[in-house]
Write a structure and sequence with these properties.
This protein is about 45% helix and about 15% strand. By secondary structure, it is an alpha/beta fold. The chain has a 7-stranded mixed beta sheet with strand order 3-2-1-4-5-7-6, with helices on both faces. α8 links the parallel β4 and β5. The longest helix is centred in the C-terminal third of the chain and has 20 residues, at about 310-325. The protein starts with 8 loop residues before the first helix and ends in a 5-residue tail after the last strand.
Amino acid sequence: MPTADGRVDTRLQNYNAFFDEKSTADAKKLETARQENYLEVVNGYYDGVTELFEYGWAQSFHFSRFYKGEGFLQSLARHEHYLAAHMKLRPGMKVLDVGCGVGGPAREIGRFSDAHITGVNNNDFQIGRARKYTAQAGLSDTVKFVKGDFTKLKEQFGENAFDAVYVIEATVHAPTFESAYSEIFAVLKPGGVLGIYEWAMTDIYDPSNPEHRRIAHNIEIGDGIPQMRTRSDSRKALISVGFSIEHEEDLADRPDPIPWYYPLEGDMRKAQTLADYTTCFRTSTFGMWLASIFVWVMECIGIVPKGTWAVSETLKQAAAALVEGGQKKLFTPMQFYVCRKPTTS
């Protein structure tokens, strides 16, 4: 049954049943089950990890590039501004945030652009938190959140409803790229712009390579993803549903002196500012151990739903796999696209 805050015990408790710990044993049957039940997979995951994300990361659940000496929160905001600037978002535009989390990017992009942002998300717990934080920020008149499925956007919003749509590391959760991109295409006005930071395996990823597959599989388990796909898959999907790609780049390939994954390494020697020591501590081995004990105690005394601890433990797998995938250039969290819906289609 749903708890008062929208989380559902059974989703949390069933999450790990959709995965096998060993990548070699994660048969096609389980992969298909995750795709067919992606709402259960994604909601089970975010019911369990949302508060940990806010505690250990920020209210913006995404990665970003770093300049030397740049603070963690400053980098997250700049990543959001970069997207909005490339999309040329302007005051008064109607903009859809697909997979909005607890609304950190929507609030930041709303302030930056003065656009009217609607965030859509299928997780009740996150929607409630997004609305609360937005009210606290005094932005409720221009930044709103609704519950919805990003594979059914046309049914919810109607065709040609938005001037622009952006996606920040969210459509990787869809059963297929096409199932989400086609719906985004439908709700965009003719001539409208789509901006995406997509999670993808890079061109050197070889699914027949056991080490490559192990990394991809641990990202799937630790991040609530039905199936990791390649950036070639994302590009083909965008074109197949009708988009014209105006700009594309893997921003993780930039020769940055500070890698995008450094906050996950838990190495406090790499902290860029004094405030970032806290983030690095939280992702250190000791920091994650303390968080694990805290969540376990909270579950035992009934403060968080049953199953929260088991789901939260998958974050350790995710962190290790994301760092390894980044170091080996097998994975990117920032395959960047700016796309256009034709004025006639």
